Amino acid sequence: MSAVIESHNHDDHHHGPAKGLTRWLYTTNHKDIGSLYLWFSFAMFLIGGAMAMVIRAELFQPGMQIVEPEFYNQMLTLHGLIMVFGAVMPAFVGLANWLVPMMVGAPDMALPRMNNLSFWILPFAFFILLSSLFMEGGAPNFGWTFYAPLSTTYAPPSVTFFIFAVHIMGASSIMGSINVIVTIMNMRAPGMTLMKMPLFVWSWLITAYLLIAVMPVLAGAVTMMLMDIHFGTSFFNAAGGGDPVLFQHIFWFFGHPEVYIMILPAFGIASHIIETFSRKQLFGYASMVWAMASIAILSFVVWAHHMFTVGLPLAAELFFMWATMLIAVPTGVKVFNWVTTMFKGSITYETPMLFAIAFVVLFTIGGFSGLMLAITPADFQYHDTYFVVAHFHYVLVPGSIFSIMAAVYYWIPKWTGNMYDERLGKLHFWLSFIGVNVTFFPQHWIGLAGMPRRIPDYALQFADWNMISSVGAFLFGASQILFLFIVLKTVMGGKKATPEVWEGSRGLEWTVESPAPYHTFTTPPKVT
Amino acid sequence: MFRKATTSVNKTLLTGLITLFSTNIFAAWDDLNMTEGVTAISKEVFDLHMLIFWICVVIGLVVFGIMFYSMFAFTKKKNPSPATFHENTKLELAWTIVPFLILVFMAIPASNTLTKIYDDTEGDINIQVVGYQWKWQYKYLEDDIDFFSNLTTDWDEIYNKTPKGEFYLEEVDEAVVIPVGKKIRFLITANDVIHSWWMPDFAIKQDAIPGFINTAWTIVDEPGIYRGKCTELCGKNHGFMPVVVKVVPQDEYDAWVQEKKDAAFRMAELTEKDWSVAELTERGEGVYLKNCVACHQANGQGITGIFPNLAGSDIVLNNKPRNVEILMEGVQGAAMQSFANQLSEVDMASVITYTRQAWGNAENGDGEIVVPKDIVEYKKPKV
Questions:
Q1: How far is Cα B154 from Cα B298, in angstroms, rounded to an integer?
Q2: Which of A154, A314, A354 has the most B C-beta neighbours within 10 Å, making it the best mutation to test the interface with B?
Q3: Are residues B129 and B256 located together in one domain of the fold?
Q4: ipTM score of complex
Q5: CATH number of domain containing A217
Q6: The whole model's pTM is what?
Q7: Is the pLDDT at A1 greater than 50, yes or no?
Q8: Same domain flag for B113 and B170
Q9: Closest CB to A347 among B75, B95, B333
């Protein structure tokens, strides 16, 4: 794919951003909104991370030391909700805002006012959610999966605020996805056919469709909860003729595609970075696209693998086991493609590449444990233990979050016009890499040895590795302050970046100067 | 001769060391791996787990091997001009088909084991398991035995005021007792929220869901005490409701059944007895500490906004009929459950009396007490 800019003149009278706070409140500029999303998500990452620190501090030793079990449950619930809906998802939307228009040669997102709205409702959602910490009865305490009836009949009063917060997050995600789809479908530069789109754009197109398909399902689930709590229905109340397992079916019909929503954009990012720093074309572009599409479609028929222990009939258990195992095929294709792209390349190891390689390796480890979890009889032993905690943190932290960090290091010269400090970037990488593995690898073992998840205290045989895991978590947590420092330092100044930034970079965003002007591609480029 | 002796001493030492070392290693490894368990099914599950694990290890070694080789061999320094190849239909077909075949190879034993686990026929002994916040109830359907199993680890141990015992958080007042060699079927359900009954040594994990009865079965051949846990987040004390199963020889089991039946008879006698306030209060305190203290706290003051205060509560002070009703029926839409089936008439009467006497309630309220016969009266069908 080669991209040629035909005309790239900026009109002289083109206005820059407005000044002051109103710039950010009223902005319809995709770059500003992208930055807002990214900063918001980083703030949430720190808040959710602080909660993880409370959890790991309590688990540092057996016995109750720091918090009460009641508050511990609130922490683990909010940690999950904030990391999923507040940190990972908005970060990917922020990257989509910054990158999709520039990658397809469009001047902005297709629906800029809706773009503003979809961001600005998010802070309210999380304000409502976090304010529940100060309410009588405390914050939601039923886990981020909020299984009924613990989240309905037995929930604290703040559950109603939680429901509204989830509604607002859902509305924001749906608007964001509509924007991405409309932009990609209508605003590509002439000559950019679907199969010429950069992989990040492909990954987001598929992600956006998944979001539109499942966010309404989540909205339905929380609305039914609201009805059960306040209007006397019994959707999930067995005593009233309802069905608590129905809740889990609905939740995971949303929840499984949701986990791919949090990993597909990461696939796109890793593909770009590995290609760039291997200085070699991606091995199989078409098969990467098809693999992502297959994963997305399969994600709709595997939800009950989260529910192997609820007492499903044998036929259902077999079907969901086989369907889940099948996901390993397209996922394998992606990993093989990244490896063959590096094979016979000409590789250098800047910070984005380090994060991308760690992403491939550690995500694959998470994939292996995922495959083990798919084996239903073995899942009877793994289910709801720390083995599961280790699995999904491996795909989410060194998976999604490493890819987001890789993306920030990779594109920040384009955003700010400055190179980040390579030495500090590498330091941040190694601290995070060590921290993440020390935190989560031992959790495989304590899970296999029999420690259930979501408990504030544990039997003595799990003590050693819990302590080590906590030490790793503190290291990982502290290293993220370094990340904040590196980003701020880069925003303030640094070595000036060239338009291409990287020797091996490919794609339209590298054809505009660094930092990218406030308005790019007001005249569409021609792609050949 | 002398030399020979040293060699043999050396040998003994060496063997000893090796044994010591290797048992330690294996012990350490066992602590970090899934238990093999003690049933035919649990051993099959363990083998399956190890099979998949080693397959993943081999695939990992191949993939990461190629990747790490590329990372070292094809740096910009060593390979300044990158190759330009891309796409290769044969290779891409191979890396789609080969993994698929490996998956089929894994799916066959997994499906077989799963089918065995799904044997739904009657057991020799059928035990209903009911999850409550935060304890388990066991009902032996054939023998009419019915009891609750509570954590016995002291709260002082949990709050680090006293040293932790060997079976910290894994000990209960009354274990489920089953005989060796018999097919035991568990019928698992819940009374309030969803719990999950997990016994790793039998490879059984079944969710206990209100309104549903899930089944699981086992045949255990090795007597012993086996420990498991609740594995579904069920509220505040989810971490404090362990599962303990005691597997005993058949004669020991029969003796246990007889003893349980005798105890039930003695309890019936206690109900008829005339109780003094002091006797009731003393017994009631024990019942309170076992069943009520988790929510209502030792000082009776509950937790503001979640668990009501009993010290000075109007119902506890002055409204005996409503007081009894709440304990017997629970409170709809709140965490307060019905204790009618959990507590004997004696325990029910004494715990209510205790709350009406403790924390200055006797002085501030009507001080009326409840005797076991009141509860018997309450339980009679109303005309």
A1: 13
A2: A154
A3: yes
A4: 0.92
A5: 1.20.210.10
A6: 0.88
A7: no
A8: no
A9: B75
